[in-house]
Write a structure and sequence with these properties.
This protein is mainly alpha-helical and 227 residues long. The chain folds into two domains: 1-78, no CATH class; 91-227, Leucine-rich Repeat Variant, CATH 1.25.10. Helix content is 69%, strand content 0%. The chain has 15 helices and no strands. The termini are far apart. 41% of the residues are buried. The mean pLDDT is 96.
Length: 227
């Protein structure tokens, strides 16, 4: 029985009983790194995480296993209030999939590690840089208590990296821009202005980011909501 007293070894042994080759093949089709994967869906991992509860020491052991499902379970069971910037940097050094990045970004946002965003954005590693913009995208949605100005302050960072043509970076930069623009009427105008500027620029990647953002930020449904 899985519970708060379950060790990392107990949880990994349980995960192995749920192995699915079909799920592993499906993950690969969505660009998820499947080396060491067991093939368990994230909703099922979240159910296991709720049963296991938060445990920082155990989460570190799960992460160290290198198993895709154990690492996702680690991210679900870290205690955000106890996560340090140094630990977040160590985790980021092992990122190998957009899925891991996006889950970790939510954890980092909940942990209040905003100071890492600029450093992650400056990092040349694709998945580390993606982390910065996934954090911005997550903060725009989940940190409703933050002032709009704190999100608008990231627009120059978005513009600075809008020419990074790597797939997992450009999509995250676009995601961050769109989420800021959808956050509120105050955020919408500056975000749309940046999107339009990028859409009219010379760089191919920046134009794609800008055009896609403009399309969403000028939708009738969104404009009606922001009135």
């Amino acid at each position: 029985m899985i519970g708060p007293s379950s060790s990392a070894a107990d949880l990994i042994a349980h995960l192995r009983t749920l192995r699915s080759e079909d799920n592993i093949a499906g993950m690969a089709r969505f660009g998820i790194a499947t080396e060491g994967a067991i093939g368990i869906s994230n909703p099922d991992l979240q159910k296991i995480a709720r049963l296991a509860g938060k445990d920082q020491t155990r989460a570190r052991a799960l992460w160290a296993s290198g198993i895709r499902e154990a690492r996702m379970l680690a991210l679900y069971t870290f205690e955000p209030k106890e996560l340090t910037a140094a630990e977040a940097r160590e985790l980021a050094a092992g990122f190998n999939s957009w899925e891991i990045v996006d889950c970790a970004a939510d954890l980092f946002v909940e942990a209040g590690l905003d100071a890492l965003i600029a450093d992650f954005a400056a990092d040349e590693r694709e998945f580390v840089r993606r982390t910065a913009f996934a954090m911005i995208a997550g903060a725009a949605v989940h940190r409703k208590q933050d002032p709009d100005e704190s999100l608008l302050a990231y627009l120059p960072l978005i513009e600075a990296h809008a020419t990074d043509g790597r797939n997992f970076v450009r999509k995250a930069v676009n995601w961050a821009l769109r989420n800021i623009g959808k956050r509120s009427a105050t955020c919408h105008r500056p975000a749309l202005a940046l999107a339009e500027r990028l859409a009219a620029g010379a760089d191919r990647t920046a134009r794609w980011i800008g055009k896609d953002a403009v399309k969403e930020l000028t939708s009738v449904k969104l404009l009606a909501r922001l009135r």
